[in-house]
Write a structure and sequence with these properties.
The protein is α/β, with parallel strands linked by helices. Helices cover 46% and strands 15% of the residues. The chain has a domain of 170 residues: P-loop containing nucleotide triphosphate hydrolases (Rossmann fold, 3-Layer(aba) Sandwich), CATH 3.40.50. The protein contains 14 helices and eleven strands. The chain has a five-stranded parallel beta sheet. Helix 12 packs antiparallel against helix 14. The longest helix is centred in the first third of the chain and has 21 residues.
Amino acid sequence: MTAAANTNEIAAARERIDDVRREVARVYVGSSRPVDTILVALLAQGHALLEGVPGVAKTTLVKAFATALGCSARRIQFTPDLLPADITGTYVLSPRDGTFTLRAGPIFANVVLADEINRAPAKTQSALLEAMQERQVTIEGDRFELPLPFLVLATQNPIDLEGTYPLPEAQIDRFLVRVSMGYPTAREEAQMIKTHGIDPPTSRSVLDARDVVQLQAIAARVYLEDDLMDYAVAITGFTRGHPRVALGASPRASLGLVRAAKAWALIGGRTFVAPDDLRAVATSVLAHRIVMTADAEGEPKSRERLVEEALAKVSYRRGMRAI
């Protein structure tokens, strides 16, 4: 059995995490919550879906985050004519010796920015599924491992715009968290104009790929009591039996909720997961996985309110067991 992370490991890890947060804050002006939620996805070895109207710095945030990690990063601009091979790569014929060699696609990077992912049709979006779930791609029957760490940061516009396609539910379920980015406050917007008005700042690398893998290993060893596992399952189970829900959160969501809570505890500098850690990440992990009934889907933030209802009605008690 793997030993739980100790206090010294957690303290050292938190210092490294705070370095990343400070570097991103030099470029991204706004609430710290989106940055922390992306950090949760990274530490929990998941992926993040950023939603927001155009112009709220989704791409700026992702690029600053990738630079601060010091890992290889590639950007894929999704368009209606993008093909799956444009993402994964393909074999090309070498005229000199008549052999085929692999031309690796942009998916072979530690951090992949899938910009405006909902502008490509489902066939192209599905090219990411194997990579996101298995950390591998299959090209012409050959299997290739992706580098570690591997993180997909996808952006999309939440409103219906011409030339966009909804993501399939199977792909949405592969995103550990959804990051909802709203408009900045008046003070934040004024600070953004002042910061970026003349010479836009740039972030610098404060980690490397090896550091990130070590942080992920520490997050996985944050202590979690069995009672909190039952609490996580009870929260996701609430979403499956609600009368206004057509499709509740999957078992993968329960696993993601636990992993995200461990990452949130690490960000907070704790060696153990508390009930408040599960509650803090529940909306980001669960809301985007829920499909509401037809009469409830049109209501603003209906899925977020459902998760809030689950947190209000499902109580945590030591010794609780799921029925």
